[in-house]
Amino acid sequence: MTDLDDAYALCYEKMKTHSATFSKAFHFLPVKQRRAVWAIYAFCRQADDIVDDEGEMFTKRRKLKTFEQQFDQMLVDKDVSQPEWLALKDVFNQFHVNPLDFKDQLKGQAFDLRTKRIVTVEELEQYSYFVASTVGLMLLPILAPMDHHALRESAIALGKGMQLTNILRDVGEDLQRGKIYLPIDLMNEYGVTEEQLKAGVVDQSFIDLWEAVARKAEHYYDQSLEQLDVYPNEAKFSVYGATIMYREILQAIRMEKYDVFSRKIYVDDQRKKEILAELRLTKDEHRQPL
Question: CA-to-CA distance for 18 and 34, rounded, in angstroms?
Answer without folding.
Answer: 16
